[in-house]
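sorry for the late reply, my laptop died twice this morning and i had to redo everyting from scratch. anyway the thing you sent over, i finally got around to it. pasting the sequence first so we're on the same page, its 714 residues, then the predicted structure underneath. double check i copied it right bc i was rushing
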Amino acid sequence: MNNKIRYTRLATIALSAALTLGAVTPVWADSNPTAITSTVGKVAITGSSYFELKQIHVLPDQSGKLATFTITIHNEGSSELQFIDYWVRLKSKSGNQFSARLLPADKDKNRVAPGSTTDLTFYATVNTSTNLQDLVIQFIKWDFSQSNFERVLGEVAVPDTYTDVTPSDGAAAISVNGTNVNASIKKFVSNKNEKYHVPTVYVTLENAGNHTVTIPSYLFSIRTQEGLLYPLEAKGLKDLKINPKESKEIQLSGSIPVAVAAEAWQLAVAETIPDLKLNVSVANFGLPAVTQQEGGSVGKEYSFTSKSGIYTTQLNGLHRLPWEDQDLLTADLTLSNKGEESLPIPKLSGYFLLDGAVKIDAKLIQTAKVIGLGAGASVNLQIAGKVPYTYEFSQIKLVLQENEGETPPAGTGTATATDVLEFSTQAELQAIPFIGMGQSYTSNDIGRKAKYVVRSVSTYEDKTNIMYSAMVEATNLEKRFTNVSKFVANFRSSDGTVFPATVAEVKNKISPTGKALLNVWASVPKGYTTANMNLLLGEAVTEGKLSEGEKAVADSYVNPVSYWLPDEKTNVATTLKKVELFPYTITIDKIGTSIEDKVFTLKFNYELSKEKLTEINTEGHNLLLVFEDGGGIKRFEKKFDFKDFDVINGDSTADEDTKIRLGKRENFKITNPDPGLIYNTKFLEKYTLSIYDEFQGQRKLLATQKADWFITTD
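ok and here's the structure:
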């Protein structure tokens, strides 16, 4: 048998015998062990070398409690020190003994070079009734001259004043592969909903060593006053590397039933030892006072914390908008990510509280087509609710909430919501932004960037009503083909009277830099002045989302903008050249009349052009030609539907030649049987040919030209 095997067997016999020994007075103990970063106690080895009990913890375990402790061997001598010559024993002050074992990672740490130190961590299962202050660490040296083969060097009893909990404003030194990482708590935030406390802890990790470290996948938990553990999810911990003298922050979040008292909570840090299937305590922290979520007024940035991260929110404005026989309360918000890592868009909701008593349920609308927030990115959000238009209030509060889990189907309950931020104002409703005459408004929402400007207004009349119309030009600022946003529109007079308007939607997608013309119109009583009218436009919303698709019916709107409307062009041109039917322009010349075989014929040349890359919904619009003899002998009307314009003449078929098309056409004829007209030729006076823009059966005169019978004009 070689000496090594013999020595090991003797050591085993000695260890077995040593389990029966009683307590021994410590040789050397620390006088003020008040934090886990300080020495708990020391025991001399030989000369100036010594053992140091660095830290000790007791953690609840499935089989009772698990004690872990770390000792540091300080070799101040001139020769190598071998730990195989020594051992430690864990006992209680009442005499119970517990079998201590080295963690697998430390089993091969047998030699300590001169002038160096080595950390060894042990673990042992203790009784469920055993507390931290009950424990004693005994240090022994194998000595074969003794009857039980060992000599007790000393022991360290955990003082009654000792705690393994780092104060909330302190730092704990955690050893990561021999490198100290200083851990401290930066901030503690806790929200609450109907079922759970929702705590979030921000931990700062600083590498105090000289080498880059990779932080292990520690387990983080909230430990309550009763010793209950609730796991926390760590954000930013995976594969986290920290360079020397560098600090990194991680975010921990979880949920705790509201039945648990929110007092004297601690943060427990543990490490999983896969080989042993044990969680070994690393550090414990007292939690600081809860940092209250900020909240306030319009125009200022405030932060709130969710499980996903820290978000910054600004309330840009509160608006009260007309909606049929009600009013809409809308809040315009900007949600930003000021951090260095991408964040998901949280599931937010909210409500308005009027005068501290009346709750107005509201829906949140995300107008931009984004699914996350990159570092430094932001997104615009809207919240909208409805109130009777006659209701007055003096104070309004917006409560922003985060929803947990999926929203349940209608009628089956509501999602759990946690209040995260509040904005309170003294009815601080903002005026709707006004866009000056001829000026444009740009929407910068990602995926829907567009510029809007009012091109013109028109009044169409019949005997009882007028049709007031505005032509809004939308320019696509995206790099892809996009659909034009759906809008809700109202005309508002200077006295506050509101006329709900209809928007003729453009169904085709718009090319990059392309344009669409939105015809917005409303019926106004005849005689009602349209002077100083403005157009209120907002993006249509259906069931909490921007309206999309032909069948979508708007139930609210957001992002309101008012346009001061330009003066209407009321002058009537005296020739039929370059008459604007925007986006079309028509010129009619070489006009002539003839009567042959009892058929009256009006003949002319025309050129119809269209502004390029412009889409429009022309439904309900007609070009109306009206022929009138000055003496009243002959009169007729001929309609040409705008929807037929976009077939080029060269593409039209023979049976379509009676329709006006884009392009040029010579000798276009309109025939009208009139057997008696030939007998009245001597009574025929100058005639007029007029162009009207007809919309929804009502018309507006654009141009009229007089000419002589039977003579072709220039």
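The longest helix spans residues 3-18.
thats about all i looked at so far, will dig more tmrw
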